[in-house]
Every structure is written in structure tokens, then in C-alpha cells.
Amino acid sequence: MSGSSRGPRDHTGIATGLRLVLAGASLGTGNRGVEALARAVIDSIGRDSADAALSVLDDGWGVRAAPAFGARSDLVGVRWSRRWHRPESWARIRLAQALGRADANPAAARFAAADAVLDLSGGDSFTDLYGPARLAAVSAPKRAAIRAGRPLVLLPQTYGPFTTSRGRTSAERIIRSSSVAFARDPWSHEQLLSLAGPDADHTRLRRGVDVAFGLEARRPTEGVAEQVEQWTSGLTAGVNVSGLLLDSAARTRFALAGDYLATMTQLVRGLLAAEAQVVFVPHVHSSGGVGESDMAAIRRIREQLSSRERSRTRVVPPDLDARELKWCISRLDWFVGSRMHSTIAALSTLTPAAAYAYSDKASGVFETCGMRSQVVDARQSAGGEAVDAILTSFNDREVIRADLAAAVPPVVEESRTQLRDLLTDVGRWRDSGGTAEPIV
């Protein structure tokens, strides 16, 4: 991997034969937002560096071929596991690295050979907001890249909030040890600068955009597509209800201003009263539609509607993938969501959208498109006040659509060029000695 000569390039100028590891997002998840992040990066690598060897970390078992990503690509299982003897266990990976036996462990071997480790943190999980165990899991591949001495690239994501000094200190060390870090919105970029500290090389603390803006929509199977086209033949409002926010524990955890389910039910009734047909769009789905599944939230709202109201609602099949859901959302006249990547699917297809948000991340991403005014903060507003604000967005949908038509195309283009430019950087690092200096 080392050497000072300039390696081979393709017609784009990107170095050929790159060896890449993608962490912090996988396709084998019911979270379509995380899937959208992974798919957008995989598709970009396929377009711009088709002969790259790409290893995508997931929570599966063993190493599995992934020909859809490229001829030299695979899926590599890694996980926190009490089965510490399993090669997928982070304990075994750390041990192999500590003993200098990376070749004895599939994941450790891929970290050791990587020209760069690209990490997404699930888009918004580089925080201790979800607890120390979640932060440890999100940090594990980052630490593995640092231990291997390979360039760590933090792809566009949210940084923080960090509510504990331990969590913040851990994040600061990881960021300062990375080679490049992208924030996906202005707010996150400010957090990134603060975490990196004043002595950091700010040219490598970059303000980017969420990679899911560049995800291409895909028409579902004909039966589903025809059904959605029938549903959207008249005035149609799409609604994403988050299963994460349903119970009283969530209200306390996220400091919500009121009853989330009651607010969303009132909103659905308001949309129906405005003569719109409501199409529910689940964006996180678990087996059986339980737990934090959006299907559980949808069911509870529909149960509260009268039979007449319920007859004017539809539910997009929860098993569609991220690209197919994006196509469905693009057919709507207007959309509101609490899952942020459901709203990115709308914004990036020029579909007027609002967010009923539980964190600052939505405001930052909407600001990317000049749409911050279309975010209603669930921590500050609930009930009739929140519903009125969201319905104002619905009523202003044609004005919003015109504004999106001007603001969004450059954002979509940036989501793709930032990855293309990064691959050029990785090739340069490889050609100049196989690594890159840390930010600090």
C-alpha cells in the first residue's frame, strides 16, 4: 500500500483499485434512513470507482459476497457480542489488532488493508443522547481504524449533542484522530469545529450535505407502483409517524412539549378536513411492526379515526426499500415526517415537506435547502399550536415547491461531488504513502 509513485487512474481521475471499508450504515436494517445513507455511498462508489474493493460492515455473521456492490466487494459481520470467541466480536477484532495478527481476523484484516475507512454513524448516532452503549457501538469501527493506522473519514453526519463529559471527550479524541470529517449541515459543522478544537486543521473539517440527497429513487414492482399512482391521482398528503416517540418514556427522554400521538392524530384529521387523502409512509420497520416500528404508530393513529376517516387513508407497504419509498414520496403533493430521512426523500425530489422534529438535526438539514421555517419543533410545540403550524406548510405547498426547485438541485449535486472528490483524496493519500495525517 505504500509508495510514492502515482497510481493508476480511470477516466474520472480517481485512483483505481481502492480498498475501502464502509462503517456505520448497512442495508440489512429496517431503518430506511440508515439504508438510504449506505445505498447512496455504495452507489456513488460504484459510479466513480467501479473497481474498488468495498467491505460494508454489518451485524451479520461471517463474510458474505456482495456482487451488487462490485466484483471485489463483500459484507463483513461485526458486533458487540457475549460470544467473544466469534470473529465478528469487537473483542476478537481488538485482540487481533493488539497482537499484530490482523490477518487472523476478517474484519481486522480489512481495516489493516484499507486505503480509507468511511464512517457514517447512522447519520445521527455519534452522540450520547441514546446512551453510552449506543455511543460505544458507533465508536467501535472508528477506534478500529485508528488502531490500524488507516485514514478515518467521518462522512456527512450530525455531531452531538453530548450530555456527559465522558461522551464528549471520547468524541473529541476520535474526531481529532480522523483524517477528514464532514458535517451535513451548518449547525453540525459548528459542533464539529467545537469538538475538534482551535488547533485543528479546519480545511479538513468540512461542511457537506447529507449523502441521502443523492440517492436515486426507484419505481417499485408494478403492482405497488400502480396502487400508489392510483392513491396519488388527487390531492394527497404523506405522513410519516415515528414509532420512536409514542410512549411517555420518549416524551421524557426527548423533552417533548406534549402528547406526540395525539398531535399527529389531530394533524391527520386536519389534513382530511382539508380534502386531502392521507398516505402513511413508514420509514423504520421491525419484524411484526412492534417496538419502535413506524407501523405501530400508524396502527394506533388509524385506530383512533372514524371508519369514514380511515377509509380516506392508505399505508405504503413497509417492506419497500429506501429507493422505492423515495419514489412513493415523490408522488405526493406534500409530506410531513418525524423521521428525518423520510423528509430528505421529499426535499430531494422537490416534494414540499415539513418536519415535526424531536432534535436539532432536522433544522440543520432543512436549512441546507433554505427550508428551516418548515420545521416544527416537537420540544416546543404540541397539540393545536403544532398542528396549525404544520397545516400552514400544507397550505403553502406550491410556494414551497417553487422554492425547492431553485434550492435543491445544487444540494443534490453537492451530495454526489463531495463523495467523488473524497475518492480523489483517498487515491492521493494512497499514492503518497498509504495514509493521511490526523486532523490534529
From TrEMBL:
Domain Polysaccharide pyruvyl transferase positions: 79-359
GO molecular function, one term: transferase activity
A Pfam short name: PS_pyruv_trans
UniProt keyword terms in alphabetical order: Transferase
Protein name in the entry: Polysaccharide pyruvyl transferase WcaK-like protein
Source organism: Janibacter cremeus
Taxonomic lineage of the native organism: Bacteria, Bacillati, Actinomycetota, Actinomycetes, Micrococcales
